[in-house]
Specification:
About 25% of the residues lie in helices and about 30% in strands. It is α+β, with helices and mostly antiparallel strands and about 375 residues long.
Length: about 375
Amino acid sequence: MHTVPLTTPGLLRGALDLERTPHGLLPHRLPARARAQCADPQLALAESQPSGVRLAFRTRATTVELHTLPTKRAYTGAPPRPDGVYELLVDGVPHARATAAGGHTLTVDLSTGGTEHRTGAPATLRFTDLPDHDKDVEIWLPHNETTELVALRTDAPAEPVPDRGRKVWLHHGSSISHGSDAADPTGTWPARAALRAGVELVNLGLAGSALLDPFTARALRDTPADLISVKIGINLVNADLMRLRAFGPAVHGFLDTIREGHPTTPLLVISPIHCPLHEDTPGPTAFDPAALAEGRLGFHAAGDPAEVAAGKLTLTVVREELARIVRDRSADDPHLRHLDGRALYGEADHAELPLPDGLHPDAATHLRIGDRFAELALSPGGLLT
């Protein structure tokens, strides 16, 4: 077996930083400087989960081994979560799937917010029966499971996939963009859209953390990209983070920062998908105690609709404000576009495919959103092309 150095330039795609650990390398989706500016454990967990991150190499190998150290999540009183999925693609076509047993375990008590970390050992994934010819191989890492890379081995020499001239699509959003309840890493809606459209994805979907943070805007500013989209709204509402007075200037500042590094790059602002929980009811979002008692996750809106008059945000308010901001800025920014998130998932979709926990799309809905985004934004003549 040949050992492929994990630090080989171009081998790992979709990560903005690599941290050396006692076991190997931990991919990060935010750079170290951004991580140093926020001590929120939710953000730390989200950005260390490698949604959209993949190993991409060209080889004649028929057997590939990936040694990895995952960190599993468990919730006190809730059923065990499924192991994260690793997907191997050959020339863009799914070939095999695997999960990694063992690893570390992070247990979260939702009623108290307390956590417990238990250490574990690395695991080895073995993919066999790959076609015996030169091919592009991708291994997509679990979108929802922190993953340290220990070693990559192949039974024939391997080198990074050469530049195919594909455009780089840089996207930022909430847990829905991160992948929420998608079934596998290529089943998150951004991955689905990217694979359908033939673009290279850099996914900065950060569960619970799409909060117009300046350090995230700077990460977007400093990341090379041909196409950029930002999905704004749901986390601001369910965190009850700011009022309308602060929201508009914060959006302008976020977009201004992105434009410092990408002055003419196509930039798409996406408003929230349909979510009855917060269409007209402000946050914060709270865990549903009845659902927790039944061993499942569920949410409810804890705000008061009467508070909208005082400036509290709802999804309806956010959509109206984002449309206005993009309309006003477009006079001086012809490369800026707006997409109403309900074009990706609206009321009719909710009637057919309701959000299981009240907030997050299920696996089938991720595929639907991804297909629609590929058509509306990434196809020839689309909003980003």
